[in-house]
Design brief:
By secondary structure, the chain is α/β, with parallel strands linked by helices. Helix content is 48%, strand content 20%. It has 14 helices and twelve strands. A hairpin with a 2-residue loop joins strand 9 and strand 10. Helix 2 runs antiparallel to helix 3, helix 5 packs across helix 6 and helix 5 packs parallel to helix 7. The longest helix is centred in the N-terminal third of the chain and has 49 residues.
Length: 395
């Protein structure tokens, strides 16, 4: 499998409920290594909640999230619901064969709950164990090839430091997040040096010279200068604060960066600078990015694939060019019709499409699901809508 095709993150049937509120409901998608995946939708549709669930700020209600092939988040509600339904049916069932089947369903789901709890709690520990084993193997070969006692002692010290870091390393640190509000995400009592280096210190790195070197590298990487390291967040502009937030994220050498509306609190001219910076970092550091935003024109410029969310559901998912050329779901069409154009004549003729889910869909009998209408183009629809979309496309 090539690097472009390798799936780095896979989200399966993600549900995030807060009491009766279904903030995210049965959302599935994957992000390939090296790509920028855009997540768009109106305020309150579940975009940020999805990002926060991936990075384990929230314990997910149901579903699974896999990172680098390992399950890092797992919810148990779907398994508990299946057990509840099986027990309910079992109370009134008189068929011995069906009772045996129900007992098997209960046992299977109880086993899945145990697996889910173990994976959710111990994924970081399992990753650290694997990392320690790899580190020992790496240094064992180097020690065998050492030609002097001085070299051996230096390698042993290096291995001791590397093992200390490996034991404290968590798989989740390979996912980092840039938050929407730069000032709210920075501790006002910490200097920029302390903010950027905090993750390194937590991971067991004690060498002050190394920490300072990394902090200065990150500051210069994001367009700031070394002198900024001793200052506090209130001494910076909004754009500079967001750069500090980006530096704090990339210092941990993540593989996946979740950018949660990183430009919505900034001026238009600064927005362009931050987007260009993220593009440069993606190319230089080989980052994969989940880009959450409202501005569809920015998402079109920055993302390779786009997922559209509405009311906690993923309603459409496709490659950027395909989505803009053939929007199918009425909500996607409504979003695209709202994009202002820098041409007064065209703007006068622009027809704004209003999305009314009650008028657009009849899901009283035929329930919707995500379906592949074109290769790689998925839409949430029922049988009648699927036929209609295919008819419109001449399929």
């Amino acid at each position: 499998m090539s690097e472009q095709q390798e799936v780095l993150l896979r989200v399966e049937n993600l549900c995030q409920y807060f009491g009766p509120t279904k903030a995210v409901d049965n959302v599935s998608f994957d992000i390939k290594k090296g790509e920028v995946f855009g997540l768009v939708g109106e305020s309150g549709c579940g975009k940020t909640t999805t990002g926060r669930s991936i990075i384990k700020i929230y314990d997910i209600t149901s579903g699974s999230i896999y990172f680098k092939g390992q399950r890092i988040c797992a919810g148990t509600k779907s398994y508990r619901d299946a057990i509840k339904e099986a027990k309910k049916e079992k109370r009134t069932c008189k068929d011995d064969k069906r009772i045996a089947e129900l007992n098997e369903i209960i046992a299977d789901n109880q086993a899945e709950i145990k697996k889910a709890k173990f994976d959710h709690k111990h994924s970081d520990h399992e990753y650290a164990k694997r990392l320690v084993a790899e580190t020992k193997e790496k240094y064992a070969k180097k020690l065998e090839q050492a030609t002097s006692e001085t070299e051996t002692k230096a390698l042993q010290k290096e291995m001791k430091d590397a093992l200390r870091v490996a034991k404290k390393t968590k798989l989740i640190t390979k996912i980092q997040m840039i938050f929407q509000d730069p000032i709210a995400s920075l501790d006002p009592r910490m200097t920029v040096r302390e903010i950027i280096s905090e993750g390194l210190v937590i991971n067991g790195i004690k060498d002050k010279e190394y920490i300072d070197k990394r902090v200065y590298e990150m500051l210069e990487l994001v367009g700031l200068v070394r002198e900024h390291a001793g200052r506090y967040p209130h001494e910076f502009s909004g754009g500079q604060r967001q750069r500090i937030g980006i530096a704090r994220s990339v210092v941990m050498e993540p593989e996946l960066l979740i950018a949660d509306e990183p430009i919505s609190a900034l001026d238009v001219s600064i927005q362009a600078q931050v987007i260009n910076l993220l593009n440069e970092l993606r190319e230089r550091l080989g980052l994969t990015i989940l880009f959450i935003a409202h501005d569809l024109s920015v998402v079109k410029y920055f993302s390779g694939r786009i997922g559209v969310m509405y009311y906690g559901n993923m309603v459409e998912l496709a490659e950027t060019e395909e989505l803009f050329a053939h929007p199918m779901h009425p909500y996607t069409r409504s979003l695209l019709s709202a994009i202002p154009l820098p041409d007064p004549r065209t703007e006068k003729q622009r027809v704004r499409i209003i999305y009314n889910p009650l008028a657009s869909h009849d899901y009283s009998v035929d329930k919707p699901s995500m379906r592949e209408i074109l290769p790689g183009h998925f839409v949430r629809c029922n049988d009648a809508e699927e036929q209609q979309y295919k008819k419109e496309l001449g399929l």
